[in-house]
Write the C-alpha cells for this entry.
Amino acid sequence: MKSLLFYFIPLLVFAVVNNFVSVFSWPHYLVLLIAFLIFQLARTRYPKDAIPFIAKITQAVFYILTVATIFRDQFLTPLLINVLLGVTLGFVIVEILQTRKKPV
C-alpha cells in the first residue's frame, strides 16, 4: 500500500502545479523534479531483474508527462497536460490491477 503513494502523490503534485501555476519558475521545476524522482521510486516494488512490461510502459508515459509539463509554458497548454495526466493515471491503474498479487 505504501508503494502506491509513490504513484499517486507525484500525479497529484503534477495536477496541482499544472492547474494552479500559470508561469513556471525554478521552484516549480524543482518540485516537478522531486515528484518525478518519487515516481521513479515506485519501481522499488519489483525485483531489479523482474520489472513487468506494464511498469516499464507506465514509467515511460510518466517521463513523457514530465517532459511535456516542463515545456508547457513554451509549447503546450494546461489542457493537454491534464489529458496526459489522465492517460498516465490510466496506465498506473492498469499496472496496479495487473501486478496485484492474487490470493492462492
Observations:
- The longest helix spans residues 78-99.
- Residues 1-101 form one domain.
